[in-house]
Specification:
alpha+beta; Immunoglobulin-like; 4 domains; five-stranded antiparallel sheet; five-stranded mixed sheet; 8 helices
Length: about 375
């Protein structure tokens, strides 16, 4: 083990360290490991790097800033090339110093989502789900195995994209979902204690609220009030101070005095916005669906999750999310399209569970 760890540490260099940006938990990519076309990566380097001019737009090269002395960049490998540029794939491979192969099929767990994802990337369920709805990209046979042997799961293939897998599953075992024998997801069944990670809290005079709920004050009230953001961690506070200019930082607290517009973007901790959005249309029939037609009202949102969806997937995506939240059936789930395998789905389903708990009068976990 010591030799293996020493080899892995030595593989991290001062230049062109690549990580998966989406899948595999951001895992480091070793120098002899091939990249895949159509996949997003993050690159860390001790020196500032700029791709050749003809690769900048092809790679969707995006500088992310400097963190702890390291320059961070995000990039996405293309899936197709113009026939007039046959040398471009080799130039990309030479620049990134990795071989690049065709994309392998991927498998995504769409429903139900796990209670949480463990630090090793394992999906954890508090009790065996009746079945798992999977989305498959590319062809490949689905298999479910344990550390001992293949188990007798019921695998129902709806079409080339959608698959449903049923148990039996039992506590104490880890199950591996694979496509074309390529491991994709590991999940296990175990008791999950109720937990709430330390995040951030907003305070204003005698009011206190979490950024992942509706703000209790409108835009005018926020401007007229001194706002304190308690981060509970020096590291989180410093990170948010770098992302949000103008806030005053003292130890683990960010503050803005009265008289100033209040806006803070805190990634997965939520967002505080000073603008007052309007509501999405309550009825699909009230929309004018003709191409180029102007809507009678400005499309807006009244939940933090709607803002995140509009930012990444536009008004149509927000409308699909609203439809799913109002009626979370399988058909409306499918209509979410690419949102189903995005980073936003856990938050969307968290809102859906909150709504269900309020309706049933249960506790909001």
């Amino acid at each position: 083990m010591a030799a293996e760890l020493a080899e892995q540490v030595s593989a991290f260099s001062a230049d062109r360290n690549l990580f998966y940006a989406d899948e595999k938990g951001g895992r480091f990519i070793f120098s002899n490991e091939p990249l895949e076309w159509g996949t997003r990566y993050r690159l860390l380097s001790a020196q500032e790097i700029a791709p050749p001019q003809d690769l900048d737009s092809v790679l969707r090269w995006k500088p992310e800033g400097r963190f702890g002395g390291w320059y961070s960049y995000e990039l996405e490998l293309p899936t197709a090339f113009a026939g007039s540029k046959p040398n471009l794939p080799q130039k990309i491979s030479d620049f990134l110093e990795h071989r690049i192969r065709s994309p392998r099929p991927r498998l995504y767990v769409v429903d139900p989502l796990p209670h949480h994802i463990d630090s090793d990337g394992t999906y954890v369920y508090p009790e065996p789900p009746e079945s798992l709805l999977l989305r498959r990209s590319g062809s490949g046979e689905i298999s479910v195995t344990t550390s001992v042997d293949t188990i007798g799961s019921d695998i129902h293939v709806y079409d080339d994209e959608w698959v449903r897998v049923s148990g039996p599953w039992a506590s104490g075992y880890e199950y591996v979902l694979a496509v074309a024998s390529d491991e994709q997801v590991i999940f296990r069944i175990q008791t999950c204690e109720l937990f709430s990670p330390d995040g951030i809290t907003v305070n204003s005079t005698d009011l206190s609220w979490d950024l992942c709920t509706d703000a209790p004050l409108d835009a005018q009230a926020l401007v007229a009030t001194t706002i304190d953001i308690d981060c509970r961690s020096v590291r989180i506070a410093a990170h948010l101070a770098r992302r949000n200019n103008g806030w005053f930082l003292k130890e683990t607290r960010l503050s803005l005095p009265s008289g100033l517009a209040k806006e803070l973007h805190a990634s997965s901790f939520g967002e505080l916005r000073s603008d007052t959005p309007t509501s999405l249309h309550s009825s699909e029939d009230s929309r004018d669906a003709r191409p180029g037609a102007q809507q009678s009202q400005a499309i807006g949102v009244n939940r933090w999750i709607d803002w995140l969806v509009i930012r990444d997937y536009g008004v149509e995506g927000a409308g699909n999310v609203k439809r799913y939240l109002s009626n979370p059936n399988t058909e409306n789930l499918y209509r979410l399209g690419p949102i189903m395998t995005s980073r936003l789905l856990p938050y969307i389903q968290a809102v859906q569970h909150q709504q269900r708990n309020r309706t049933e009068g249960g506790k909001n976990l």
